[in-house]
Every structure is written in C-alpha cells, then in structure tokens.
Design a protein that fits this description.
Elements: E1 2-5, H1 20-28, E2 32-36, H2 47-52, E3 56-58, H3 61-67, E4 70-72, E5 90-93, H4 101-109, E6 113-116, H5 131-148, E7 170-174, H6 178-189, E8 193-198, H7 201-211, E9 215-219, H8 222-231, E10 234-237, H9 252-256, E11 263-266, E12 288-291, E13 294-297, H10 307-328, H11 330-336, H12 338-341, E14 344-347, E15 350-351, H13 354-360, H14 367-377
Helix pairs in contact: 5-6, 10-11, 11-14
Length: about 375
Amino acid sequence: MIIGLVKEIKNNENRVALTPGGVKQLVGQGHAVLVEEAAGAGSGFDDGQYAQAGAVLCADKKALFDQTDLIVKVKEPVAEEYDYFRQEQALFAYLHLSADKLLTQTMLNREVSSIAFETVQLPNGQLPLLAPMSEVAGRMSVQIGASLLQKYNGGMGILLGGVPGVHSAEVVIIGGGVVGTNAAKMAVGLGAKVTVLDINKSRLMYLDDIFGGRVATLICNEYNTAYAVERADLLIGSVLVPGAKAPKIVTESMVRTMKKGSVIVDVAIDQGGSIETIDRVTTHDNPYYVKHGVIHYSVANMPGAVPRTSTFALEAAMLPYLMKLANRGISRALLEDADLRLGLNTYKGEVTCEPVAASLGYRYADPAQILAASRTAG
C-alpha cells in the first residue's frame, strides 16, 4: 500500500502522525510511505531522518495525495486540503465529524473512507486512540488553568495549591473519564482541592478508590453541577460521548455565578464543547477570551503545544491499527476487526458512524453491511 504522511497546517499544530521509526516499520512490511517535506519538523524530526527510514520525500502536497491510497494525519483536514482528496481514498486521523458538517459533507461527496481515531473502540468501551491525547490534554488543562489564574494573565491571582495557612484553589472537573482522571492527578499533585462530577456512579467509586479520598466526587446532575461551578476557581470540562457532539452540561446562568477572574478550560471543545458560554474555538495564538468576568480557554488541539510527547504517545497507540489497514487492505481490515470498524465514519458516500449521523441529521448506514456488500460486488 502507498501511505501518505502530510504536514499539519492547523493553527500551531506541530504534531505529526508518524515518527521516522513508524515509517521504518511500514517500509519494512513492504509498504511505500510518501512524506511531505517538513512534516515532522514541529516534533523535532527532520527530512533526513524520514529518508533514512525509507520514506520518499514530497515537496508537493497535491502530488502526494494523488499518489497515495491512505492518508494518515493527526488532525482533521482544513478547508484548503479538501480538494486534494479523491474518490476511494482513505483517511486515518482525528476527525470529530459531529462538530463539522462541512467536512462531513466533503468526505461524503468525495467518497472518502474516513476512519476516525476517536471512535475506534474496544469491547469494554475504551477508546485506545483517543486515550493518549486525552491523557495529555487532561494534564495540560491543569497547567494551563494554573497559569491563567495568575494575575498578569487576568486571573484571580491565586496559587492552585495554596501555601500553609492559605486556602488552596477549588478545581472542579466535569467528567471523570481519561481527561478528567488525568486532570485530577495533576490538580491533586499540586495541592488543589478537587471535585469530580460524572453521571456514572461506578466511575466515581473507582476515582474515590484510586485517589484514596483526596478527591470529592459528585453525581453530575443540574443541582450538583450548579453547586460545584459556583465554587470553582478552575473549571475543567471533560465530557465525552464517543463520536457525538458534547452535551452542554454547564449553562450560562451557572457561569454567571463564578468568581471574577476564575478560569474555564473546556477540553471537549473539539466535539463542540460542554460549557454553554464556550461559543468559539480558540487557537494557541489567541487561546482565551473573557465572558461574564470568567476566562474561557477553548483550544481544540491542546496536545499540539507539546508535540514531541504527543507524537510518540499517539504513534504507540495508532501504529498497530495502521499496520492492519496497510497489511490487509482497507476493506478487509475493517471487516475483520470490529474495534477498527467502529472508527469508520464515512464510506462510499454514506455515514457509517451512528453518533455522527444522529448529530448531523444524516441517514446511518451499518458499516458491516455496506463493507460486506461492497466486497461481494467487487
């Protein structure tokens, strides 16, 4: 198979989907890998390293797209890349289609087989390709929040962990999944007072157990959420419904009760955001805005700020799936691997991810049936 690795052009996105080591493994399996020049520069990999690993370097992105069967990226394509895709090409990346109807329609119009990292799912419900970036974003959310709470950034001027004789900051985390757990680890480590809300009682029992009572847990309902939000110095939104648009858990009226100079970091922004006052996606160039006196941070590619760590973490989780796609072929790999098949979001002009179809109003096509029918017809 011919695989294309492209340079990310989303604002301040410095990650790359494959390291030279990953390229070497693919080439060693008999595949050709075309790498856009400078694709790995932001993560500290130069073109010579990719060439030494066996890649073919390409200066022309369109030419790279024209020659490849499968494009592997980190983030979803941006508008200027839409015209590069061609019929029956495959794309493997973070897509978040539920929050982007234009990209979804482009994938349908061009009949791209789009496979989303974030909806590949194990039988136990775990999301193996989302988890590493959720770990990074969860930990970053506390670092970022602590920085924004400093007075020179417009915050309240408080230290997250306090000092002896002075109250520590109140950190409230909405959602106790991978993001929320990692955010709690960082906040507890810094000495903050931490509360985690989740709708799943079993998850809260797990968090109570692993943190040994150092984290307060609350069932996430309207009353408890309003109570916790009002007291928060740092509020972290980490709600996830796999493949679907994030529900708005924190209302504008709740945000109005927060203290002036408090901070919101919404990690769920790439799925539409879980905070009602998060009304825009920000960038690393201009990462936050103030509404109702509260600092709102809503950068959709937070791990792009630590690309070296993020690239290695992503590749470690993603490369085995990419190997399956390359070694078996796209259709066969998807048919034979149910976990990977859940990652298929569009195929031959159909929406094959049920949460995406429900969020955007498309008809849902069962991926197993459409893949089997396509293989029989072929």
